[in-house]
Design brief:
The structure holds 2 protein chains of 2 kinds.
Chain A lengths: L6 H21 L16 H10 L6 H11 L1 H11 L4 H13 L6 H6 L6 H14 L2 H14 L3 H10 L4 H6 L7 H12 L5 H9 L3 H14 L5 H7 L5 H13 L7 H5 L6 H13 L6 H5 L1
Chain B lengths: L3 E4 L2 H6 L5 E3 L19 H13 L8 H10 L1 E5 L4 E3 L7 E7 L2 E7 L2 E8 L4 E2 L1 H6 L6 E4 L3 E7 H8 L4 H25 L8 E6 L7 H15 L4 E6 L6 H4 L16 H11 L1 E2 L5 E4 L12 H14 L2 E6 L5 H9 L2 E6 L3 H16 L7 E6 L9 H8 L5 E3 L5 H8 L3 H4 L4 H17 L19
Parallel strand pairs in B: 11-15, 11-16, 12-14, 12-15, 16-17, 17-18
Antiparallel strand pairs in B: 1-7, 2-3, 3-10, 4-9, 5-8, 5-10, 6-7, 6-9, 13-14
Helix pairs in contact in B: 2-3, 3-5, 7-16, 10-11
Chain lengths: 293, 457
């Protein structure tokens, strides 16, 4: 199709029509959403997401829009779109399913995590994070097992995991790269219930797991983790010492001792800097000359 | 349901990690394959889960196919004894059903922690966090080794449907249970169940509404029922005049006890209490305006902790400001009396104060609104006041002429000296409401408090 001089105007009018239709659904003037998810000219997913973002989640207007989206007449289009050959359509439908938390779409979206195209993978990852629940978390965990601990997957897992999900994953054996990712996700959730499993893993875990666990314990700010973190300050791996020093700086109840002071003269500059920051956070401005002397 | 008060165990809850939670090995864990949604439980697991759901309140009413659908999406967890399943104040999205074992629901309310429920097989918890989006109300700690079944919010919504009547019913039950636990925690913490004093906060959001007068007469009315067991704590700062209106001359006050060490605090506090000849006792908050700064929230908590062991009713006359001290008293009270005058500004302030009290979690049945008419022809009539407050006025005190001012001059308490006066009637009605709400099932105290040796009238 040739792009004539009136093409921008045509696109603008089309976009405006779709937007007005969505607004009419929100206003209650139409009860069915009649939007083509495979529209080549406009991105209906973006418009729906913009409309949803501008509404109060508990309000009547949002309920109207949500009811129109999850109504079978539109939901079936979304489910069909998730199996479409066109990657753009699949990504769009994943975004719609994610924003409106269409839990039934999880198996279809989960298969998109293995896509070759990064924008499809990212759309699926974010959608699963927003939908949440056990099935989404299972899919994300499986993706971490296969493709490794990608930051987007970890963040989505932290969002999606229901209560005690990550804790139970941490308490059983997993492939090598998974446990640090799960520990990081547990730290991002900032739940105290994750402290015991993380501490348990750190006692006999790999340096990578101990570094991730230390960082997670710092985010949670759990005083119960202080002994393990102090022990980590004497680790031979600088990443473990670094994460422990950072974590101790974030735990309010910690009373800095000789181990943290010793990190001020660590051979690694980042560890020294982290120890310095931690001491400053606890109101102790270190005297470097005294430490070195 | 067991109910007891423990000492503050914050250190236990914060200081050590709880026993780990493990997932029972009957669920297929996700594998690194595109077909990740393969978590089908075995036949026997399904039967067990459906049996637990059929035993659970509210869920038993669901059709069988819905129960099976829910059961398929649930997780089975094993929690060791003393393991903490949920922490107070944290968000949650899962309802836990108890398959076997027992858990305690413990609400921390410094200076104590209250076990508000002991739940056993067939019960569930976490529903308020899941369906009402409220933070966890208490710490849930496994009393014995437990097997739990977890149902997350997304699965519940997907199976039951977001707008179904079941979810509405679930929300109603969750809200009702939430309020019950909160109420139990308040009552248990402040000793209603241990035969300790009922603390009544009397708050007047606008000056000149007659708050102190109502407080004094309420104390008088209560002390006729329980002589020697009722105390008025005057925190109406900066000018505390309760003792003056009762004809007493204070020589010390709560503010001067701030630096007192804890071992001598109780003795010093009780010796500061003034004794009125008719029975009520008064504890001044501050003698001089500048001393009111010394009365901190901590000092009030210390004082009320001592007083509630000694008296049956402690009425706290609060000032017009809502500061830390006032909020501390609201936390400690089992009943709040709001006094408003029928003036536009006073009623508006009262409506705002009611909103704040509701946000603080004061239940409606523990809140009494008093309308005190200080003029013969009020500018705002009672129906208009009720419309503005969005609730009924519980007690209306009619205009009493010059009697309150004359009583202040002579140092008499009208509710004790003149039963026909309007203030006296209102105070007795208010006392009746309070004794009806808080005085049931209470055996009279054997040892009434001996009057402390202080200056009196």
């Amino acid at each position: 199709m040739s792009r004539g001089p009136l093409e921008p105007a045509r696109l603008a009018i089309h976009r405006s029509l779709v937007r007005r239709h969505i607004h009419s659904v929100v206003a209650g003037k139409a009860d069915r959403l009649n939007v083509d998810v495979a529209d080549r000219d406009v991105d209906p997913a973006r418009m729906l997401i913009e409309a949803a973002a501008s509404l109060d989640r508990g309000g009547v207007l949002y309920s109207r829009l949500e009811a129109a989206v999850v109504h079978p007449s539109f939901a079936n289009r979304v489910f069909d779109g998730l199996g479409s050959h066109h990657l753009v359509v699949r990504a769009r439908c994943a975004r719609i399913a994610g924003v409106f938390q269409m839990e039934q779409a999880v198996p279809l979206i989960a298969s998109m995590l293995w896509s070759n195209q990064s924008f499809v993978r990212n759309a699926a990852t974010r959608a699963l994070g927003m939908i949440g629940g056990v099935r989404s978390a299972d899919a994300l965990l499986a993706a971490i097992q296969r493709v490794g601990p990608r930051p987007a997957l970890i963040v989505a897992l932290a969002r999606a995991a229901p209560d005690l999900y990550l804790e139970t994953v941490l308490s059983r054996k997993q492939p090598r790269g998974v446990q640090p990712a799960v520990a990081t996700a547990a730290g991002l959730r900032r739940r105290k219930s994750a402290v015991a499993p993380i501490v348990g893993q750190m006692s006999d875990g790999s340096p990578r797991l101990r570094a991730a666990g230390g960082r997670a314990l710092g985010w949670i700010g759990a005083p119960a983790a202080i002994p393990v973190l102090v022990e980590c300050l004497e680790s031979t791996h600088w990443r473990v010492r670094l994460s422990a020093a950072k974590a101790l700086g974030k735990i309010k109840d910690f009373q800095p001792g000789s181990q943290l002071l010793a990190c001020l003269v660590d051979r690694n500059a980042r560890v020294r800097s982290a120890a310095h920051c931690a001491l400053r956070r606890h109101g102790r401005v270190p005297n470097m000359f005294a430490v070195r002397g | 349901m067991g109910l007891h008060v423990e000492r503050y165990r914050g250190r236990d809850l914060k200081g050590r990690p709880s026993a780990p939670v493990t997932e029972l090995a009957n669920r297929q864990f996700p594998r690194a394959s595109p077909a990740a949604d393969t978590g089908w439980p075995s036949y026997h697991d399904m039967l067990g889960r459906v049996a637990v759901l059929e035993r659970a309140p509210l869920f038993f009413s669901l059709p069988e196919f819905t129960l099976r659908n829910l059961a398929r999406r649930m997780r089975q967890l094993a929690v060791a004894a003393r393991g903490i399943v949920a922490y107070q104040g944290e968000p949650g999205d899962t309802i836990f059903f108890i398959e076997s074992g027992c858990v305690n629901v413990i609400i921390e309310r410094p200076p104590g922690a209250v076990t508000v429920a002991v739940l056993g097989p067939g019960d569930f918890f976490g529903e308020a966090a899941c369906v009402l989006n409220r933070p966890q109300q208490g710490n849930v700690i496994a009393q014995t080794d437990c097997r739990l079944i977890a149902l997350d919010r997304q699965s519940l919504n997907a199976v039951v449907g977001r707008d179904s009547g079941f979810l509405d019913e679930m929300r109603r039950v969750a809200d009702q249970r939430y309020r019950t636990f909160a109420d139990t925690a308040v009552q248990a913490t402040w000793g209603l169940l241990l035969e300790e004093a009922t603390v009544i906060g009397l708050y007047s959001p606008k000056g000149g509404s007659g708050g102190t007068c109502v407080a004094l007469n309420l104390v008088g009315a209560l002390s006729q029922l329980h002589p020697g067991q009722v105390l008025l704590l005057d925190l109406d700062f900066p000018y505390s005049h309760a003792a003056l209106l009762a004809g007493l001359v204070p020589t010390s006050c709560l503010a001067r006890l701030a630096p007192m060490p804890s071992d001598t605090f109780e003795e010093a506090l009780l010796s500061t209490v003034l004794y009125h000849a008719g029975g009520p006792m008064i504890l001044p908050g501050a003698l001089r305006p500048e001393e009111s700064d010394e009365v901190t929230a901590d000092l009030i908590v210390r004082a009320i902790t001592v007083l509630r062991k000694t008296f049956r009713y402690v009425v706290v006359d609060l000032g017009i400001a809502i500061d830390d001290a006032t909020l501390a008293v609201f936390d400690l009270t089992q009943h709040v009396v709001l006094v408003a005058a029928p003036e536009l500004s006073a009623v508006k302030s009262a409506a705002d104060a009611l909103e704040i009290l509701r946000k603080l979690g004061t239940p409606d049945d523990r809140l009494t609104v008093v309308l005190n008419n200080r003029t013969p022809k009020p500018a705002v009539l009672r129906p208009a006041v009720e419309r503005m407050l969005k609730r009924a006025v519980d007690v209306e005190i009619a205009f009493d002429g010059p009697k309150p001012d004359q009583a202040a001059l002579t140092g008499t308490i009208l509710s004790m000296a003149d039963p026909r006066s309007e203030i006296s009637r209102g105070a007795h009605e208010l006392a009746g409401i309070i004794t009806d709400t808080h005085g049931k099932n209470r055996s009279p105290k054997l040892n009434s408090v001996a009057a402390p040796v202080t200056e009196g009238c």
